[in-house]
C-alpha cells in the first residue's frame, strides 16, 4: 500500500481504520482511511490503493470509530467472505492489519458489522476532501 503525505495530514499514523468497497468488472477499490487525529484520506486503485485526497473529521469522532472497528476486528472470528462486489472494514495498529470483508450472498453479514460500517460511512460522507499537494 502506498503512503502519501500532505502538509496537514499524515497517512502513516500508527493506528487507523480503513473502509471501502471494490470488485466488479474493473476490480477498482474505493477506500477511506481515518487516522486517530481525524485525518481522512480518500483513495482508489486496482491492487494498490493510492490516496490522493485528504479531509478532516473531529478527533473525538475518529477515536470513537477506531475504537469500535478495532474492537470488532480484534474480538470476533475472522469474517472474510468477499463476493464479486465486496465491502471491507480494517483496523491497522503499528503495521498489523485486521480486516473484515463481505459481499458473498451465501454468508450473511452480522448486523453489528453493518452498523459500524454505516456509522463510518456517515462520518465521512460530509467530509470535503481536497487533493493532496
Strand content: 35-45%
Structural class: alpha+beta
Distance between the termini: 19 Å
Multimeric organization? single chain
Q: Which of globular, elongated, flat, extended, rod-shaped describes the shape? A: globular
List the helices and strands in order: EEEEHEEEHE
Spatial strand arrangement across the major sheet = 5-7-6-1-2-3-4-8
SS elements, strand count: 8
Percent helix, as a range, is 10-25%
Main sheet characteristics = 8 strands, mixed
Question: Stretches where pLDDT falls below 50 for ≥5 residues?
Answer: 1-11
User: How much is the average pLDDT?
Assistant: 87
Count, helices: 2
- Rg is 14 Å
Question: What do these coordinates show?
Answer:
The protein is an alpha+beta fold. The protein has two helices and eight strands; from the N terminus they run ββββαβββαβ. The two termini are 19 Å apart.
Offer a quick outline of the entry.
By secondary structure, the protein is an alpha+beta fold. It has helices spanning 59-75, 111-125; strands at residues 15-23, 28-35, 39-45, 50-56, 80-81, 85-93, 96-102, 130-131.
Features:
single chain; 133 residues; alpha+beta; eight-stranded mixed beta sheet; 2 helices; 8 strands; 24% helix; 38% strand; disordered N terminus
List the helices and strands and how they pair.
Blueprint: E1 15-23, E2 28-35, E3 39-45, E4 50-56, H1 59-75, E5 80-81, E6 85-93, E7 96-102, H2 111-125, E8 130-131
Parallel strand pairs: 5-7
Antiparallel strand pairs: 1-2, 1-6, 2-3, 3-4, 4-8, 6-7
Helix pairs in contact: 1-2
Amino acid at each position: 500500500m502506498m503512503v502519501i503525505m500532505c502538509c496537514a495530514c499524515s497517512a502513516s499514523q500508527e493506528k487507523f481504520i480503513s473502509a471501502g468497497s471494490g470488485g466488479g468488472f474493473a476490480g477498482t477499490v474505493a477506500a477511506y482511511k481515518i487516522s486517530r487525529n481525524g485525518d481522512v484520506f480518500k483513495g482508489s486503485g486496482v491492487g494498490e490503493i493510492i490516496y490522493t485526497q485528504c479531509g478532516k473529521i473531529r478527533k473525538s469522532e475518529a477515536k470513537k470509530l477506531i475504537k469500535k472497528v478495532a474492537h470488532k476486528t480484534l474480538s470476533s472470528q475472522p469474517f472474510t467472505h468477499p463476493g464479486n462486489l465486496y465491502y471491507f472494514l480494517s483496523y491497522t495498529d503499528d503495521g498489523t492489519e485486521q480486516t473484515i470483508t463481505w459481499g458473498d450472498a451465501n454468508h450473511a453479514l452480522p448486523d453489528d458489522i453493518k452498523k459500524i460500517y454505516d456509522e463510518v460511512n456517515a462520518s465521512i460522507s460530509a467530509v470535503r476532501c481536497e487533493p493532496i499537494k
